[in-house]
Amino acid sequence: MRTSQPQTIYLSDYKVPAYLVDTVDLRFELFEDGARVHSTLAIRRNPDSQESAPPLELDGDSLVLESVALDGTALSESDYENRGEQLVIRSVPERFSLSVVTWIEPQNNTRLEGLYKSSGMFCTQCEAEGFRCITFFPDRPDVMARFRTRIEADQKAYPVLLSNGNDVDRGELDDGRHFMTWEDPFPKPCYLFALVAGDLVEKRDTFTTCSGRDIDLRMYVEPRNAEKCDHAMDSLKRSMRWDEEVYGREYDLDIFMIVAVDDFNMGAMENKGLNIFNSSCVLASQETATDMAFQRIEAIVAHEYFHNWSGNRVTCRDWFQLSLKEGFTVFRDSQFSADMGSPTVKRIEDVTLLRTAQFAEDGGPMAHPVRPASYMEISNFYTLTIYEKGAEVVRMIHTLLGPELFRKGSDLYFQRHDGQAVTTDDFVRAMEDASGRDLSQFRLWYEQAGTPMLTVSDEFDEGQGVYRLTIEQTIPDTPGQTNKKPQHIPFALGLLGSDGQPLPLRLASDEAEAPTERVLELTEGVHTFEFHDIPSEPVPSLLRHFSAPVRVRYPWTREQLLFLMNHDPDGFNRWDAGQRLAVDVIQRLIGSPDDAAIDPRLVEAYRKLITDTDLDQALVAKMLQLPSEAYLIELAESADVPAIHRARERVLEHLAEALRDDLVACYQRQQETGPYEVTPAAIARRSLRNTALGWLLMINDDEGRALAVRQLNEADNMTDRMGALRALVNSDYEADRRQALDDFYDRFRDDPQVVEQWFSVQAASDRAGQLSDIEQLLAHPAFDWKNPNKIRSVIGSFAGQNLAAFHNPDGSGYRFLADQVCRLDDSNPQIAARLVTPLTRWRKFAPAYSSQMQSALERIRDKDGLSRDVYEVVHKSLA
Ligand code: ARG
Ligand code: ZN
Question: Ligase as a keyword (predicted)?
Fold first, then answer.
């Protein structure tokens, strides 16, 4: 608990560690009422440190110190200073061994940082600063040591004892206890340490690497989850092969382990050789997981596996460099997912997340650069900017260099920095050195926060056949940053002729062979490009594939957007044109009378999507999704959420009524014939069917209702079951909704991952998720205040997805969220700080809303003993 005002930590204060740790010898005695941790560190002065005879300072948090010994001699309390958060020894030799014994209480650890218990098993989460909750240690990623770990526990209750590396010893002890010893040959920062002890079943497989080594693959889960491992195991093998083929990266230990735990603050963690996952991000079966969950699991398994090189073998020097591993690894997992499924669909999903949530973050009070310059609590910086914008920055390097030079760059990076803790600048330098390109201006992407705005204008000179495109770049101010310099932006584009054909892009009149797509490089505030031999006024297809994380402003007409929807060879921009058109139609309706006309061309465009079976069905499934409320809010100047919600619903209802027969036909056509498969085609089929069903129920169509009830009863997979349940939950058929929810709960009450989906579908629904319903869900026997997934599925879904209910004009949604944040602040500050996010955007909303959101933030600010996590978010939001 915080006792004084939290300190700000600055990148500019970085100093190399005064002491290094070569080896760590750990012995854990695990008991029901606590754990004793014996640690012996081989420490030496860092030759690179300038300080003369500095004190030894070790980090600690919530530790009971039992003893300290230096080179085998016990120290008395006058030899060291235990400041609680630091253990300081004033004078130490150049090289020595330090033994520390601490007592901790994992069973009472509700913060889920360090060593804690989840459904009866012991597990750890050490990133970013959890290792200091286990023992005193220089808890910073640039101190890398070799770990040896002995775990002792009751044999019956904890038959499985795991840590990083290879198992080197095991045996029985007195009193029904046993032990196991693990050794990790690779030096690593302590944030990659992991320990697991529990009664778990083991699933085994093997993988033969490119050099012919056999790797033992093991998954450990609670017995009831034994049948939910196959998908993750297959995903792991695909990831291992892919990283060899695409990045030349081979796995380096003999064992690779995955453990599933129910209580976990984040998605998963890449601990060396022992990845620990949130159950919801790894366990799947046809009956219990949706297509989206299958895809998410594949991506997260890949992400954590890829960290073995981008994060573990080459790690971060300090936490300001977090995107070095996270941005690069997200880029790698998105390339992987694109290769496993539909690249266009994957791009659409990534951009949707970026444009709704990351752009909002980058335009709000918590905006920070991809490489931040300061922070109070590092846990607050596991953000969309670090992860998603960071991945976009790496993607732009890939675009600028091309795949071959990029691969040369990544090879050089891994080879040059293997075993080191480095910076984002080292990454960029490797890319420069391998390619010969100058990325000095490009580095601004790491330093400047805020989403660049590109304002595009054009003119066509018919007489000369010249098309002129002018692009102006501006970067908005963000907290602590004004007057930004222009950034280096790769801007991919094409031009379409009046017949829909792509035109050659001739930048000089004598250019012979010109491509039909180019990547222009923007480096100045304003650029004008001239394209020659253009026969008639073209339609520009701008920022293809979303080649940079920027906003584009261009005065598109609805005709142009419809034209691009039909003709753009870039699938991403076809989708984006549809989104822009729908945004335009919805925005025009916000606050206008209920009989205001909806553009019939939108209806016809959607009819074509639903009825034309020659189109790529995976893309169609995406194009049918109207822009979300969250995205419409992001685009608004001063958002009135209930008005946005109503306008969007009116468009949906209008489309559903006009296309009613086509929707029924589409639903019938997409009926499944063969067995359940998770392929892009099958996923698209299910998505189309469930979209059609949802639309039919929006307009209270009785045939739709019958189809939904039948689908719910006959579904052999969770995607269809959830599709039908969601449609009913969001309909006016109240009796069916109640019945469907009760039946669903009875069927799945013993499966926490499904119960979480059941909570979420209600909490996110404007029909079933009014505040009084939410309060009932919190009182439900399956709700658990100690389980982050349950908190996210009820409170997170309400505040993050059920936007019309959350933004109730009476302010009740905001007060409710503030109360829950205060309640959680004591038990789990990381989760509490995450939940504040919707309130941090208060300045985005119309005055009637924003003033009440501000009061809710003040209510949190005034709570006694606020955690550092919540303190930082609330104070920065109100500043
Ligand atoms: N490194 C993990 C990942 O794969 C995330 C860990 C986040 N931990 C935290 N305390 N915020 O992305
Ligand atoms: Zn990661």
Answer: no
Atom 3 of ligand 1 has which residue's CA nearest to it? 269
The alpha carbon of 17 and the centre of ligand 2 are apart by a number of angstroms equal to: 25
- DSSP lists the bridge partners of residue 87 as 58, 82
Is residue 2 scored above 60 in pLDDT?
A: no
Distances (CA, A) of 253 to 217, 413, 687, 853: 11, 21, 40, 51
In the predicted model, is pLDDT for residue 674 greater than 90? no
Specify which residues 456 forms β-bridges with.
Answer: 471
User: Which of 248-257, 262-271, 307-316, 674-683 is predicted with the least confidence, judged by mean pLDDT?
Assistant: 674-683
Is residue 411 over pLDDT 80?
Answer: yes
CA-nearest residue for atom 2, ligand 1, is: 269
Active-site positions read 304
Give the list of residues 6+ apart from residue 681 with CB closer than 8 angstroms, or none: 617, 618
Q: Which atom of ligand 1 sits closest to the CA of residue 307?
A: 4
Alpha-carbon gap, residue 811 to 481, rounded angstroms: 32
> Residues 877, 839: contact at Cβ < 8 Å?
yes
| pLDDT at site 673 | 81
The response to whether residue 379 sits with its C-beta less than 6 Å from ligand 1 reads yes
Could you give the percent of the chain with pLDDT greater than 70? 100
E strand intervals along 634-732: none
State whether CATH 3.40.50.2300 applies to domain 21-199.
Answer: no
Residue ranges, comma separated, of all CATH 2.60.40.1730 domains in the chain are 21-199
Name the β-bridge partners of 343: none
Q: Which atom of ligand 1 is nearest to the CA of 311?
A: 1
Instruction: Give me 444's structure tokens.
Output: 């601004």
Q: Average pLDDT, stretch 167-174?
A: 98
Domain with CATH 1.10.390.10 in the chain: 313-553
Nearest to 258 by CA among 247, 274, 270: 274
Q: How far is the CA of 436 from the centre of ligand 1 (A)?
A: 34
436-456 pLDDT, tens digit each: 999 999 999 999 999 999 999
> How many C-beta atoms surround the C-beta of residue 762 within 10 A?
26
Between 595 and 208, residue with greater pLDDT: 208
Q: Could you tell me the maximum CA-CA distance found in the chain, to the nearest angstrom?
A: 95
pLDDT score at 17: 98
Beta bridge partners of 23: 42, 146
Ligand at minimal distance from the CA of 869 is 1
ipTM: 0.98
Residues at Cβ < 5 Å from ligand 2 ion: 326, 329
The bridge status of strand 195-198 relative to strand 201-208 is unpaired
Which pair of tokens denotes residue 189?
């920062």
Provide CATH code, domain 313-553: 1.10.390.10
Q: 396 φ, ψ to 5°?
A: -65, -40
CA 393 – ligand 2 centroid, Å: 16
Q: pLDDT tens-digit profile of 255-297?
A: 999 999 999 999 999 999 999 999 999 999 999 999 999 999 9
Please choose from 127, 275, 323, 828 the residue to mutate so as to test ligand 1's pocket, defined by most ligand atoms within 8 A of CB.
127
**CA distances (Å), 307 to each of 99, 314, 459, in order?**
31, 9, 48
Cβ atoms of 104 and 30 within 8 Å: the answer is no
Stretch 247-253: mean pLDDT, rounded? 99
> Which CATH number is correct for 200-307, 3.30.70.20, 3.30.2010.30, 3.40.50.720, 3.30.70.260?
3.30.2010.30
- Mean of all residue pLDDT scores within the chain: 97
**Phi and psi dihedrals of 272, rounded to 5?**
-55, 120
Q: Is the CB of 697 under 6 A from ligand 1?
A: no
Rounded distance from Cα 300 to ligand 2 centre (Å): 8
Q: Cα separation of 49 and 115, whole Å?
A: 32
CA 325 to ligand 2 center in whole angstroms: 7
Report pLDDT for 3.
53
pLDDT of 842 above 60: yes
